[in-house]
Specification:
The protein has 80 residues and is an alpha+beta fold. It has a domain at 15-66. Helix content is 34%, strand content 12%. Helix 1 runs parallel beside helix 2 (51-59).
Length: 80
C-alpha cells in the first residue's frame, strides 16, 4: 500500500480531509473484507459528528460509533 498523508490547517481530520480518509478506509476494507460491515469507533470530536460526515460514512457503508465523553483517554492522575 502506498504511503498516504492527510493534513489540513487545523490538525484535525475534518471536512474534505475526513471524507478522504473515510473513502480510503472504505476502499481498503471492501478489498480485503468483501461483504463484511466495517465498524469504526471514534471520540466526541464535533467535526466527526456532523451530518455531512455521517452521510459520507453511510454512503461508504461504514458504521460509526462514538465513545462516551472523557473515555478515550485515561484520567490524568496527580503526581506525588
Amino acid at each position: 500500500m502506498s504511503s498516504l498523508n492527510f493534513w489540513n490547517d487545523t490538525g484535525y481530520l475534518e471536512g474534505a480531509v475526513f471524507e478522504a480518509v473515510l473513502a480510503k478506509v472504505a476502499e481498503e476494507w471492501s478489498t480485503r473484507n468483501s461483504g463484511m460491515p466495517a465498524l469504526l469507533f471514534g471520540y466526541q470530536l464535533t467535526a466527526h459528528r456532523r451530518a455531512d460526515s455521517a452521510e459520507c460514512a453511510t454512503n461508504f457503508k461504514l458504521f460509526r460509533f462514538f465513545l462516551a465523553p472523557s473515555t478515550s483517554h485515561p484520567p490524568t492522575l496527580p503526581s506525588f
